[in-house]
Design brief:
The structure is a homodimer. Helix content of chain A is 65%, strand content 0%. Chain A is mainly α. The first copy, chain A, binds a DNA duplex through helix 3.
Amino acid sequence: MVQKRSKPPAAKPEAVAPKRRGRPRAYQPEIALGKALDLFRKDGFAATSLDDLSAATGMNRPSLYGAFGDKRELYIKSYQRYRADARAAMVDIFRDQLPIRQRLERIYAAALDIYLSGEAGPRGCFTVMTAASEAVADPDIRKLVLEGFSELDKAFAACFRLAKENGELPESADPVVLAQLASATIHTIAIRARAQVPRRELEAIVKGALDVMVPAKP
Amino acid sequence: MVQKRSKPPAAKPEAVAPKRRGRPRAYQPEIALGKALDLFRKDGFAATSLDDLSAATGMNRPSLYGAFGDKRELYIKSYQRYRADARAAMVDIFRDQLPIRQRLERIYAAALDIYLSGEAGPRGCFTVMTAASEAVADPDIRKLVLEGFSELDKAFAACFRLAKENGELPESADPVVLAQLASATIHTIAIRARAQVPRRELEAIVKGALDVMVPAKP
DNA sequence: TGATTTTTATACTGTTCCGCATAATATAAA
DNA sequence: TTTATATTATGCGGAACAGTATAAAAATCA
């Protein structure tokens, strides 16, 4: 692929009106992908049919194929969108300068918001759902899921490492071990959320875990 | 249902040869249920067809229906069998008198044996899998899953309570909070196992969690 | 032997599924 | 206008699916 097309003189970076050639799209890819993600999060891969996806996105099946590929590719793109959304919801918390306890509290609150959202009941964590289903037989999907786990572990470890440098944690604290506990807490509330354990109980689990991981401030 | 049948004088408790009336069964229900469980654990409810189940159990579909009911009932019976098996694998560990650290080590080792078993790769925890899929839309199944979570939480809490009584834990230790952490550790290794994280890494997670939950013995 | 009972074996029904082929439609370029 | 292009709309085809109806088989009982 040397030239993008024939004309566009490689000038403006696709400003506002790309002036596409044929019949205009009747859908917005980002919105449609969001709808697909909603469905997949609710019902999982196997129980979500292309007809369901077609109805939810407002796109008919050929358009779905044209835009996203087959069902598996759409699932993968939905999952990547989920990860991007989750990252976006967390990035401020990881960037702001905060005491470790507060930072963790905000992370878990944001996680619970994600896990408990959904019109037809809480939907849990899509990474966990995918690990429990498609990741077993599909190596590509498995790789993404492992990335998801690893990303979270590393983010938590960075938090604890920073807190230790700031003297918020005892010298004996091991950031990696604490990060694994923090991830485990994420996983347990994600799973329980999906079984419709009420938010109050999940918050109690988080509080108990925090009291063990970081010194509570009285 | 007043009388069981017509003849059997309510004497012997079904010794060995019940002398059933019609054509003898070509299958053993317990073995068939085990095969069904194996399949469900591997592929989940939606991705397991009755043809698959028929092939795995050696029973044709009408026999499956006669013995276990429809697919959903078979899934529920498989899940209950899973719980019974898991309980049986753990009961000794909970009964024996052991230092808390050793007891937990044995529990996690047994759990990993369950989660990592499977000819076609590790299959994780069926309770977690079910929570992630069927428990959302099916209240009966959800109830079973919540029971499963609760049973584990309570068993762990009993362990920690006993350890505290024995002076193995500081007075400040909260058995319920520790139990939630212990369950969280179960959940995280169950999920990661399903994504084929190697046993060594899972054991490292367990060790880290144990070092936080109970004093390591040097 | 013949009747009864229980299970197995075969095959059918209607539905749902995924993916695609074909045709219609709406835009830009010539 | 005409042509080229990109999308939408309709619907087909073959496979897989869950559940069941019907008939054959294998045992006990009379």
